[in-house]
Amino acid sequence: MQVPGPDTRVVELRVHGILGTTGDELTDSVASVDVAGDGVGRIMRPADRLRRPVPGPMLNAGERSVPRIVEGYVWGAMTSGGLAKATWALLFPFALANMAHWMLPPTRTDNPVSRVLCSSLRALMRISALLLTMLMVAQITVITLDLVGSQCLAPGARCLGFVPEAARGADVLRSVVLLIPVALVVLLMHRLSTVSWRVSAPKDDSPQHSALAPMLPGGNVVSDPDTPALRALHVAAALATAALVALGGPLTFSLDPRWLVAVAVLLVAVIGTAGLDDPAGMRETSKLFRALLGRRSRRVLMSVAGVLLASVALLPGELAGPLPGSGATIDALTALLVLTCVAVAVLLLPASLLARPVWKSQPKQLRPWAGGWMAAPVLMLAAMLGNGFGAGLALSVRQTLSVPRAPGAAPLLLPAAFDDVTIFWGTAVVLMAVALVVAVPWLLVRRFRRDDEDPIPDEVALLHAGRREDQRKAASAWRIADLQRRYSHQLFLVIAGVLTVSTAASLAARFAGMPRLPWLSAIGVVALAGLAVGLLRMVFLAATKRDTARYLGVLGDLALFWPREAHPVVPPCYALKVIPELADRATEHLKDPNTRVVLVGHSQGSLLAAVAAARLLESLPESDRERVGLVTAGSQLQWAYPRAFPGVVPHAALRDLAGAMGDRWRSLCRGTDPLGGAVTTWNRQVYNGMLIGVGLRGDGTEGPLPAATRGPTGALVLGGDHWLPDPQRGPFSCRRWVPGVLGHSDYSGDPEWDRAVAMAAGLERPVRGAALPLSESPQIPSAPDPRAVGSGAVGSGAVGSGAAGSGAAGSGAAGSGALSPQGDDGGSIGDSVEDLPRRTAGETAEAARSKRTKSIRSFRKESKRPVEAEVPEQQSHEEPPSETAEASAELPAQQDSEPRSEPSVLPEITEPRGRIAPWERGSSLRSTDS
């Protein structure tokens, strides 16, 4: 590590998470201005009253203060805001199917069976996405050309009576007018799939195969060069599907040249989609498909499909009554979609088993969800939403056109597949309701049983030692957050089971002759109509109200991180813009040899920051890598992303990143956070009054870690994880104060934030801080009897091991932070109210301080163990003027004594930089008593 010089400065480059934010909130300032970016990806700094950029507050690092520049990268405009982005919610099934492709297990390149299985799975994923596009266009065509044009506006029909009879008799007019919306939808799909964010950074053309495990996280999150070909295939297939609806469907053979051309276009689309599987162009088959689907070939294919639809519009045939091709087309596409989902679920089983050696050595809580099978339920959910939205829209339009229904008018008919969808959704709603009725009481009973058996977990008791009210609040929030993190992925497994049963029920009702239940179909109709109307209403509100747009943008924040791989008709991927621009901004700052850059990411931003840090480490020279740090807060980099996307963010990649970063990767976490959690540690437990665990090490390995140390503001630092007290210990001087349980919000308001940034910048050692003091014995069941402190049993275990030993206490004494709490946390955590400082009437604070300093010095002269640094003059507990040995012998008895009823004098709010935090004093004194 390079030694910091007198001109060293730190650039703290922050990235926000989901829901977006403003520059003021991201930089913790009352005003902010753009200093770089293109208006879509904005790099902002705090500003003064004249809106001029100003640096951030000084960063306290050990015994010195270092200039700090705070910058924030705001990317929320890429996923929310305006009517155009609001309509992206209608394409959420497509984005979900594309995300499922990135959830496939990694390919074992040394196993040919694994390579074949994974290639087949990727092909099936792309075919499923193609079928989703075709099904959506077919449903829109059924609504416009069949339901409205051929039935509602048929000659003699009484539906939409304001339409003149002359217009009803012109079949060409009706077909042209009602196929225009279909053509516009396909055109908009093509237009949207060509939109990509302009990257204001040097282009790095290094595509990697999405199935190959990267050496560092997100190394394969790159654009696919085959996306233009995939886009052309989707557009051609969509136009051919609309034509087939009018030409009798795909199952009825016809000698009409248009029917033959439509079938040929569909075959080309399916074969081409299945063959585009190698973005790097390493295989001969990939080179062949890429040559066949060049720019000229793509234009010819889309032109043929466009001419085909135009011929159908100009020569529609007879439009009187339901079209015979509607039901056949919907049935065929639905059946193929179900078959591909089943095939993916079946092939995922052996593919996951073959990939199991990659993660079988990991602890259970770090292995992929469902053994790497999570892509199947996500794909099923995408298919259910895509099919359900189209069916709900069709049923809503039919209901609207049928009210009021004229006497003697023929009813408007939809294909039988829509009735099957109502049974499917009705069964799904009933089963989900049953699952909720069973799951919610089970979770409540499980929670209350744990409350009775273990009211306050050991980690909570240790983190909030001496604060019983905070322990009770935190314990409840810890359990709720733990339930959400532990069982959230099982929701997808429940959905997969529900979809399987619902599919079987709808197939049995359709083909096995089982009686249809009217109430079940009614529930399905209501659910589908609610889905369609609710989604359209959300789009409208999001286009007109900013707050709704931000909440709707959550879907985009989660799904649009992933580049177009399986489905090209999805909104542009923001990661392809944010990550290169973050890395480029950091590189620009690193041109100054005195600058150190710390990438800081909160929630979803932690994934962006981690991938950007990995890109920096790959591109920078060795000398500059040591000036790059990483801080993640409220991150899902352990409990979610490696388990849901084992081929993109595997645990091994995080281990490699931790080894490349050394001790410069710090993670802020709270047990009360339902969305974030630990990143670098696991298997944590309280043993002998210490927090221990296993985690990632700075040398690129993983294993047992030294016992956690207590930070100046009460945080427990275990490995690279900083466990923050929530509620905070405070208020703190010169620091924004937020009371109550914070959960996933406001990490930057915690004083430990600055300490983590200083560590990530290499300006402070992670081992700095006192060893853990013991709390009252009834609050930590696993802690030993506090009376054993006098005999040295605990002193040798709690303070004399590794980084948590007396050296840690000494360094904490030498360079504690500038912040100290006020309120009821002013004294040492390990001491009772008896030990809080007192002074007699008339005694000045300076006299009390002088008296205390002399007592501490006399104590150290008598101690057998040398201390590394002199404790400066400070406000602390008074001791009797007797010999130090007697005072130390009485310390355990004082810890068990009853608190006095009269109020105690607490320390001052502020402590000068370099003094020991109040809760470190008792443990630093005890460390010399052995």
UniProtKB/TrEMBL annotation:
The keyword Transmembrane helix is assigned to this record: yes
Gene3D superfamilies found in the cross-reference section: alpha/beta hydrolase
Compositionally biased residues, Gly residues: 792-815
Protein name from the UniProt record: Lipase family protein
Start and end residues of each stretch annotated as Disordered: 774-930
Transmembrane segments: 124-145, 172-189, 232-253, 259-279, 300-320, 332-355, 376-397, 423-445, 491-513, 519-540
Keywords: Membrane, Transmembrane, Transmembrane helix
Basic and acidic residues: compositionally biased ranges: 835-849, 859-868
Source species of the chain: Saccharopolyspora ipomoeae
Ranges of Low complexity composition bias in the record: 882-893
Keyword RNA-binding: no
